[in-house]
Structure formats: C-alpha cells, structure tokens
Amino acid sequence: MAVRESRIRSRRPACAVAAVAAAALVAAVPTVAAGETAPPAPVPAPSASAPPAEKPAGEPAGKPAGEPAGKPAGTPAEKPAVPPAFGAYLDYGARGVARMDELSRWLGDAELRVGHTYLPGDRWSNIEGAPGFLDVWADWRTRKADRMLVLNVPMMERNEEHVGDDEVRALLSQGAAGRFDQHFRALAEHLVALKVPDTVLVLGWEMNGTTYTHRCGPDPEAWKTYWNRIVTTMRSVPGQKFRFDFAPSRGRDAVPWTQCYPGDATVDIIGMDSYDQPRGMPFDEQVKEPYGLQAHVDFAKAHGKPVSYPEWGLFRNGDNAAYMRRMLAWMDEHKPVYNTVTDYCPHGVFQCDDNPRSTAVYRSVLFGRTDDPAAEPADPQTPEPTPTTPPATPTAPPVPPVPSTTPARPADCSPLELGDWVEHWLGGKLCLRLDWYARNNASDK
C-alpha cells in the first residue's frame, strides 16, 4: 500500500514556536557511557489513572473481593457512566483556549470537556514545556473537575525537520539507552506543578508514518524500548496520574502500527488519528482496510484498553458530509474516552468555510449535547417530578442540499452541439443568443 500523504500542518506549534519558546538553546546532552545498563522495567499505570466514568462501554465495575455476584432485591440501579468526552483542536496556545467557549456557544452550549494542544517539537526546551505555554491550558483544565487536557508530546526534537532514517535510527537507540530521560522527567514535574497531573499524553503520535523524527519505522524495537523508558521516567515523578495514549494514523501507512505497539504495561489508551483519505476511499473501506477503524477497536478490545480519536476530520475528499455523519456515528457506537476534531482547513468545521455541508452535519449531531449529570436519569425508586411546561429543545439548521454542478442556461440562449472534444477544449458548451439579430440591428440605428 502506498504511504499516506502528509497533512498540512501550518497551524501546528512547530511553525509558531517563536511565540512560546525560550530564547536559549538547550545545553548539550552528554553521550551515553559504554556499558550502560538496560532501561528499567516499565512501571504499570496506577489504577487511579483511569476513572470509572471513562471505562469502555460494557466493562464491569470493580467490586471488593468476596462480594457475591448480582445485587440484592431493591438495590437501586447504577447511574450510567458519563458520556464520552469530546472537543476540538482549535489552536495550540491561548487562542485555542479562548475559542473553546466560542465553539460551545456555536454548538448550542454543548459541553466541551476536552482541551487539546501540542508541545512544539523544535527543541528539547519546548518539549519540556516552555515557560508560560501550558499555563493557560492548565487553568482551563482545573476550572471544572470533569475536564480533560490532552497533550501531544513529541519524542524527539527537530520533530518535523525531515530527518533521514539513518539519523532517526541512531536517535532511537540513544533514547532507548536513556540519553533523553531528563527532558521527560522535567515535563512530568512541570505538569504536576501546574496541578494537571492527570493529563492524557499522546506520546509519539502517528509513529507509523514518515512525517516525524519520532517515527517507528527505522527501528521498531528501539522505538518500543524508548517509549517504555519515557513512560517509566514520567510515572516515577511523585503526584503524577498520567494516561498514555498510543495513537497511530489509520491504515498501514509506512509500517503496520501493530509492530510499534510497546506493550500493555505502558499504554492506557489506544488511539487512532483518522482523516478522510486517501482520495476516493469511502467510509466503509476506511473501516475494513488493513489496520483501519475496525482493526483498531478489535486490537484495543483484545488488549483490554479503551479507544480514542485524538485527530480526525475531513481531508482528501473535500466537503464530505457522508464521512462526517458516518464518523460521528462510529464514535457514538464505540464510545472512545475522548475525540477531538482537527478544526482548521481543510479538516475542520467551525473555523473553516470550505466545508459547509459537513459543518451542518457536525453541528446538527452535536448541537446542545451535554454531559451534565443532572440530565441523567434519576434513581428509579424516586418518582420523577411532573413538568409544568415541556423543556426547550435546541435546534440546529438542517443540512443544506448538495449544490448543483450544472451551470444554469442563460435566458434566450440555444446550446450549440460541437462535440465532446471541442467542448472539453473550450471548457464547456457554447450557446447562441436568439435575440442576436434584433440587438445587432438596434446598434446600427
């Protein structure tokens, strides 16, 4: 299978690091001494890092040892889990935080529980979290207890500089040996100090492709060892409750993403970045293709992990309302821990005017959606109060019809049949105005 085309990334932080990066370069890192010991064994995630409200649908709740199966008669039924969280990537910095409220209002005050941003991958000092960069996101996260901060974390500096395979292979070997541990320890300490120790970390995303220096393909074994080393280092920081999201791009891409999976002990969520590509591929094929959407949920189920969709949106197939409707339905069915649409052109819906039909579908499906526990069914043993007036239901505009691609024929104009080849060369049909004689005679007077 051909390698997937890279997406436009002009809105990512790698192209705007001057606004967030410290001016000084990171001091040179000493090389690994000969005979260095093997990396430490991965530390499993603490159980507190996966709140019960975000377990996959159908997963049984834990019970104390020795508790009998079933429930005594008259025991109130458990309330359903909080619905899966959703949000959008709106911008990498403070503007992204500000636009969360705008998007919520546009969606009829829908509850956006997920804030999503990316650490710049240009230099190690920014991967550690440049001063001031994460503060606004931490402030947004801590305002409400049920919010979630999702942070994409590069595994290498110079992450989008098209570093060659030989150099990537050497860097992965150095990372597996522990050369870069201090940067990830600094990031973990920074997040804990900002009071966001439960951040979801999308570490080394789209590792199965060719775009990033942190890609897996040149040496999958070293990549997996390096991932495990990063997770172990960050989990060693006191106070942390991080969850680590392994998120390849959909499909085989450069290498099968299953070859990069580092193991259940260091992965909390199995995500997937899934855009509407390649050109001409219908949604059913995106589901069924090797390493596609169905393979993703099957793999996660086999490993006892929930799924996520950190990046998704339109792409090679333009304003594709069918994709938008099917992808939203897919996520409603498979209950990811979270999903965040990539909201800039060509992928987006709120900040992109190029996709009006897909925008209308997105808005109509999510308009007014809320995760407010007060909206959940009450205890069945408590009678429901009788409403005096029916509740107001938010409405969204209907999906506009597909615009016609046939040009309207001018009035008083008769088309000339010149043949397919001539019409192709001319770029369309010619027509003869029926009033040409009258207009010409009038001009002579």
From TrEMBL:
Residues 1-33 form the signal peptide. This is GH26 domain-containing protein. It comes from the Bacteria. The active site is at 206 (proton donor), 311 (nucleophile). Keywords: Glycosidase, Hydrolase, Signal. Pfam families: Glyco_hydro_26. Residues 35-80, 370-411 are annotated as: Disordered. It comes from Streptomyces olivaceus. Residues 58-80 have a biased composition (Low complexity). The keyword Lipid biosynthesis does not apply. Belongs to the glycosyl hydrolase 26 family. Residues 380-404 have a biased composition (Pro residues). Residues 66-379 form the GH26 domain. InterPro entries: GH, GH26_dom.
